[in-house]
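Posted in: Structural Biology > Protein-Ligand Complexes

Title: Requesting predicted complex, alpha-L-arabinofuranose in pocket

I'd be grateful if someone could produce the 3D structure tokens for the following input. Sequence and ligand are given below.
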Amino acid sequence: MVYRKYFLIITSLTLILISCAGQKIIHIKLNDPYAEIQPTMWGIFFEDINFAADGGIYAELVKNRSFEFYNPKMGWRTVEIDNGSGDFFILNRSDFPNNPRYARLISHHEDGKYGIVNEGFRGLPVREDIRYRFSVVARNPDSIPLKMLVQLLDSTGSVAGEATLGGFKDQWEKHEATITSSVTDAHGKLNVLIDGRGTLEMDMVSLFPADTWKNRENGLRADIVQMLADLQPGFIRFPGGCIVEGHELETRYQWKHSVGDVHERKMIINRWNTEIRRRQAPDYFQSFGLGFYEYFLLAEDLSAEPIPIINCGMACQYNTGELVPLDELESYIQDALDLIEFANGPATSKWGKLRTDMGHPEPFALKYIGIGNEQWGYQYVERYTIFAQAIREKYPEIKLISGSGPRPNDDRFKYLWTQLPHMDVDVVDEHFYMDPDWFFNHADRYDSFDRNGPAIFPGEYAAHGPEGEYGSSRNTWLSALAEAAFMTGFERNADIVHMCSYAPLLAHVDAWQWRPDLIWFDNLNVFGTPNYYVHKLYSNHAGTHVVPTLLDGQVITGQDRLYASTTIDEEKSHAYIKLVNASDTVTQVSLKLDGIRAVGENATAYVMQSDDLLVYNSIEEPKKIAPAETIIFNIGKSFEYELAPYSFHVLVIDMK
Ligand code: AHR
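-- Reply #1 --
Done. Output follows.
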């Protein structure tokens, strides 16, 4: 009997010891903020890839509206109705060099209609009861009165709305009409017809929904911008990416071609048009309807710092690697200086005046500029240095961002880090597209970085399985979980990591070249990936300072596949605890909130979890994996918390 009693005591003690050993005690020192979280910490990176601009966020619905594609009739075909027949020519004019081509339509019969139909970007979407703004720049060379009939069609060809325009003169003039659609259809079309006999010449055939973001003409898709606004981004880096560099220098992004009257912006081929062999997009161009003015405006709308990236005299090193000789960089440097004047200069300056004339007399308060995208080699160092000197001399207040190559730790990256101390860099932009295991295994990446070097900006990152693995590069839960784990390292190292952005931002489900991507859309819908929701949870719970989060006195970087970091918001008196369990078992943690008097009775938990690591969101199931909000009752300064396998948690605690 006595033996049995001792046996029971020993057994219970053993169980207690085992459970103490199995349970992880995490101390969070809430009274020990050791670095500020910069307001720029969680941002976005916009690149015109995957139909992100034309056919995407830029709400223009007509493809090849100014007949400037290399095949000027691409996206258009002729239409004959009733007894209609005619001719469709493309003409060139030498007095309009940025947009020389236009269309001439000749309709032969009085009792017929003849014209052209536009297919839109993978279809021309219409929504029931939404007004559409149609406009065209046209002239009537014969001055014989005629009528233009404009029709919205659904995917079966039935008319969903129409308008008639007249009063065309023999001089170019802009004509406008509004049409309301009677149906919703993702794959409609637009008919532009001459009703009867006559000749009409036209350019800039345009159709926008009236309900763009802030109802702007030449506006953006409100549903997509709302997804960006929901992220509360601290900055927007734009317009790329390789798009800045060009396949060759000729096709680099030239911001001056993207501002001023939309009609006079000089369109170019999008470098992603033919870049990816298996995902060709011959109809992918940059109309620059979304140009630098619109990017600055978007940044302002989002309360995000604008971060333009400029070409530094180097074309994409994966393509031609074309270089501008050092003694011929002047016009490139002038472009950079003029850009700063465009953003910040007074209305009396040349470029400040253009901004003012475009509708924005107030400066855009530009603070950062990126010199080059992901360049590498001594050729980059040489060019960066010349740019930096010129910009510092004229605009010493502007912070300069350098690249560091395309990989996180290869020879190109290491070489650039040997040069950074001599390059006068404020912020260094890192790019890494690596597999999920790399992200899980490198959550401690920044713990050993130089504290006296430039600030760090992981400007393009994504857990990126090769095709055929990890769900074929899809935005799987595995990829998002790996990023969530890695991002604890951004927060923990907030003294040097001042900004970060996932890449790329947007992709059209029917016209993408590259994946994974943060947000996907089709012509009528938009959805966030698991990666989007992970980024949003961090961004919406950024806090103002980071505090120590320790397991056995150590920072938590993947011990038993557990990751953690904590920030506090000094104004709101909130603590935001981020926890990632990347293991396949339940993990119990005991959270000790040290250094404060008391906490609110209940906490809020936002949890993302799935046992299926290859699950992803889609148009059909847009929130298959998304945060669930729950309340944790009666927490106290010390409480137990359970982490399901493969889960990411943000706990919001009220600090007293
Ligand atoms: O985001 C896709 C591409 O990846 C970017 O254009 C480039 O910067 C990187 O190589």
